[in-house]
Write a structure and sequence with these properties.
The protein has a four-stranded antiparallel beta sheet with strand order 1-2-3-4, covered by helices on one side. Strands 7-8-10-9 form a four-stranded antiparallel beta sheet. The radius of gyration is 28 Å and the shape is elongated. A hairpin with a 5-residue loop joins strand 9 (about 205) and strand 10 (about 215-220). Helix content is about 25%, strand content about 20%. The chain is α+β, with helices and mostly antiparallel strands and about 220 residues long. It is built from four helices and ten strands. The chain has helices spanning about 50-65, 110-125, 135-140, 190-200; strands at about 5-10, 10-15, 25-30, 40, 85, 100, 155-160, 170-175, 205, 215-220.
Length: about 220
């Protein structure tokens, strides 16, 4: 069986020519394929040289896409230039499991981009002096205020939520009555106490006019 060896843009390519004119060539890139120990197949009727041109075209496309194109599972990372990618540390919790990211650059996988956006929003809130949902929730819980149940039991308690309008809009604290699926103004629960507690800390501006909603934002000069 005729074997064709080539090096192209840092990738080593090995192609086994088909045994007859109707067969398909088999190949690896950097001694790898999606299934360890197996070779990928070219098109039926394709020669080894034609298969090499096809592989080179795929590599050209990957390189043309640049850093923004580096994504996907580790099994297909052999298509990218050696040293251009690394395994993403967030892979275990992503939609695709283990995946790759560009070296020294943000991950392009959708779950990681969403996580990075949330973290950027939290940092923006902190920079503007606004509370974050986790921080204020934890502070209220430690002070003895009950959280509403997140397990479907619909227990009475508070919940801290982001306001629409970005980091500068701050957060709101709402109260769910026992068995309620949404906050109701006629059941303010302990919100008056919560408003006074937050106001007493002197860190944030607090607006509470009764009902089931407390607005908490950064203090203005």
């Amino acid at each position: 069986m005729i074997t064709l060896h080539a090096t192209y843009k840092g990738r080593t390519i090995e192609i086994l020519a088909p045994v007859n004119p109707y067969g398909a060539p088999a190949f690896t890139v950097n001694d790898a394929s999606p299934r360890p120990g197996e070779r990928m197949l070219g098109e039926y009727g394709q020669t080894a040289r034609e298969c090499l041109a096809m592989v080179q075209k795929i590599i050209d496309q990957r390189d043309e896409d640049g850093v923004k194109g580096i994504r996907g599972t580790v099994d297909y990372a052999f298509w990218y230039a050696p040293g251009a990618w690394e395994e993403c540390p967030n892979g275990a919790g992503s939609a695709y499991g283990s995946h790759i990211k560009p070296v020294d650059a943000p991950c392009n996988e959708d779950t990681c981009k969403a996580r990075a956006a949330r973290e950027a929003a939290r940092k923006a809130r902190r920079a503007q002096g606004n509370p974050t949902v986790p921080a204020l929730s934890g502070q209220l819980a430690r002070a003895g205020f009950e959280r509403t149940g997140d397990d479907g039991r619909l227990t009475a308690g508070f919940r801290v939520m982001k306001n629409e309008g970005g980091p500068s809009a701050g957060v709101r604290v709402v109260w769910y009555g026992e068995g309620a699926r949404m906050p109701m103004d006629r059941e303010p629960g302990r919100l008056a106490e919560i408003a006074e507690f937050i106001r007493g800390k002197g860190k944030y501006a607090v607006r509470y006019e009764g009902g089931a909603r407390v607005e908490v934002t950064a203090k203005t000069a």
